[in-house]
Specification:
The chain is of the alpha+beta class. The protein has a single domain (2-161), classed as 3-Layer(aba) Sandwich (Aminopeptidase). It is 29% helix and 32% strand. Strand 6 (137-148) and strand 7 (151-161) form a beta hairpin. The longest helix has 15 residues, at 96-110. Residues 21, 27, 85-87, 92-98, 120, 124-127, 129-130, 133 line the site of coenzyme A.
Length: 177
């Protein structure tokens, strides 16, 4: 497995992983699979400001991806990021998610962020277990936070301390890989 930064040519393979999660699961609260053009623009905006890692196999097939995004828009929140990870179903449980998160958390720490938040719609045992395996701790659950497929879902929050929150800390660096 090779880890490398996101390239715009990855968008279609990423949508092939993400689309079925939108259509079939509540792991994301997005309700409609986005058109490729819009999705590509969204990924470009993320990769411009945050680390965005992809994993591929020896044949160049995309196995998964992980990135950071804005936690909340108000500037005082800028030291916190939300992290996301998706792995192709055929590559689950082979260490891809762990490798992607390890690279992502190092990049975020290096840029001076303080908190990485994992935001997980329940039930998602694999995601909760992956976050815990990567050092995240659970700290909150929003009950009935949203509805997908006509069913109310709880959303579980986990956090990982990237850096100590020190007084007078410099702003984090917003840049891609
Ligand atoms: C969650 C997800 C990213 C995990 O990726 P993965 O590559 O399969 O995970 P890894 O193989 O790196 O697992 C690392 C550790 O996480 C835990 N883990 C991962 N999947 C697990 C599962 N299904 N059950 C229990 N523990 C699991 C284990 O501790 C595992 O270590 P081990 O295999 O040595 O026991 C993957 O299941 C996925 O893409 N799910 C669909 C999308 C999704 O839910 N994304 C998260 C949105 S919040």
């Amino acid at each position: 497995m090779l880890l490398r930064p996101y390239r715009s040519t990855d968008a279609e393979s990423i949508l092939a992983i993400y689309g079925p999660v939108v259509a079939e699961s509540s792991a994301t609260f997005e309700l409609e699979v986005p058109p490729l053009g819009d999705f590509k623009e969204r990924l470009a905006r993320i990769a411009e400001r945050f680390p965005f890692w992809v994993a591929e196999d020896a044949c160049g097939e995309l196995l998964g991806y992980a990135y950071g995004t804005t936690h909340r828009e108000r500037v005082a929140y800028q030291w916190a990021v939300e992290t996301s990870v998706y792995v192709a179903p055929g590559a689950h449980r082979q260490g891809v998610g762990r490798a992607l998160y390890s690279a992502l958390l190092s990049s975020l720490a290096e840029r001076g962020f303080v908190w990485a938040y994992g935001v997980i719609t329940l039930p998602n045992d694999a995601s909760v277990a992956l976050h815990a395996a990567c050092g995240y701790e659970s700290f909150a659950t929003y009950t009935a936070a949203g509805q997908k497929f006509g069913r109310w879902c709880d959303v579980h929050w986990m956090r990982y301390a990237l850096n100590e929150a020190r007084p007078g800390m410099a702003e984090p660096s917003f840049r891609g890989l």
